[in-house]
Design a protein that fits this description.
Elements lengths: L2 E5 L4 H13 L3 E6 L19 E5 L5 H11 L3 E4 L6 H6 L1 H24 L3 H6 L1 E7 L24 H20 L3 E6 L1 E3 L8 H11 L3 E4 L5 E6 H14 L5 E4 L4 E3 H15 L14 E4 L14 H7 L7 H14 L1 H9 L1 H10 L1
Parallel strand pairs: 1-2, 1-4, 2-3, 4-5, 5-6, 6-10, 7-9, 8-12
Antiparallel strand pairs: 9-11
Length: 355
């Protein structure tokens, strides 16, 4: 049994990791989350009463709070997912991304190093600082047959990806300079249950059900590799428990798709699973609307996940088709969840309680 701190554990990927650890292992979890707009404790209703789960609301930039949490909880590992992660928001306001993703990661590294230095040699050797990052740090592959490997050089295009690249470099430097036992993972686009509605897949599902325009950037020809979030959670736990210190592992779903293909597949699934359309709508695809592309939009990301498969034995369980079907069915069955997110009710109640 391990004791694991998960930062950003109320977010989309973080909550999937917490649910996986509580439901499928014997480990204990301290979920450390600032609860910004993307943090939603309702994502964890199924595990929140488990005796192996604890939640602490804190900012990873708060040094005193981080020191206190490490000292009290005495973790065997930390899985660092807390980050500002929306590209469009980073273009409009990059400062928050630098603060959380770079300064926050630095603060967390220093708290971890201080704590790790106090451990006996056996626990020192067993400790892991697992930094979870993105394939966006690698930049644009354009439309070639190349794939991102763990040796691909960094060429971030947006303030978001630049801030994540900076945090990746800090983690590796703390491993090299101070000997902190670090591992890094870079993942492709995630999708699945509890995905915040500003992201492509849930945005399209929800807007289609409402009969609203389905915005597609440019021609919709941007290519992404899609990874079901529960597959990603399994991969992350595999890395934190079995990954080799100092190594990087790319995690992908082996599902390269153009954005327009994703949107049309979602429309097709909704035709089957939600045939009762809004009044006057003939086909969901009729709602597709092409809009001006975002500045600096990368054309193609594609992950080579050979290393994690060959070294650690992880492969995704879901195909793009099976994962997307599960996702649509989840959103159709959990309308109250996403309606509360869209309306802001999930935050208003929380802020009222905390006032």
């Amino acid at each position: 049994m391990k004791k694991i701190i998960v930062t950003g554990g109320a977010g989309f990927i973080g909550s999937a990791v917490v649910r996986h650890i509580i439901n499928d292992t014997q480990d204990s979890v301290l979920n450390l989350d600032k609860l910004t707009y993307a943090g939603n404790l309702e994502n964890l209703n199924s595990v929140c009463d488990n005796e192996r789960y604890e939640f602490v609301q804190a900012d990873i930039c708060d040094k005193a709070a981080m020191d206190e949490i490490f000292t009290r909880f005495q973790p065997d590992a930390i899985m660092h997912l807390a980050a500002e992660s929306h590209v469009d928001r980073s273009i409009d306001g990059p400062g928050e991304f630098i603060q959380t993703n770079v300064v926050g990661t630095y603060t967390l590294l220093e708290a971890a190093r201080k704590y790790w230095s106090s451990l006996d040699e056996l626990r020192k050797a067993a400790f892991r600082f697992h930094h979870i990052s993105t394939d966006e740090v690698y930049g644009d592959l354009e439309d070639t047959g190349l794939l991102f490997t763990e040796e691909t050089s960094y060429e971030p295009s947006s303030p978001y990806s630049a801030s994540k690249a900076g945090s990746d470099h800090l983690v590796r430097a703390w491993g090299r300079t101070y000997g902190l036992p670090v591992v890094v993972t870079n993942c492709s686009n995630n999708y699945g249950p509890f995905h915040f509605p500003e992201k492509l897949v849930p945005l399209i599902i929800i807007k289609a059900l409402a009969g609203e325009a389905l915005p597609v950037y440019g021609k919709g020809d941007q290519i992404r590799d899609w990874l079901y979030v529960e597959d990603h959670a399994r991969a992350l736990y595999t890395v934190v428990t079995r990954g080799i210190v100092g190594e990087t592992y790319n995690i992908g779903g082996h599902n390269e798709k153009q954005n327009i293909e994703v949107v049309k597949t979602l429309c097709s699934l909704l035709e089957e699973l939600a045939p009762n359309k809004p009044e006057g709508l003939n086909k969901y695809e009729d709602l597709i609307t092409y809009v001006a592309d975002r500045p600096g939009h990368d054309i193609r990301y594609a992950i080579d996940a050979t290393k994690i498969q060959e070294v650690l034995g992880w492969v995704p369980q879901e195909t793009f088709e099976s994962g997307l079907r599960k996702t649509v069915l989840w959103y159709l069955s959990n309308q109250s969840w996403w309606e509360r997110v869209r309306s802001g009710a999930y935050r208003q109640e929380r802020l009222g309680l905390n006032a």
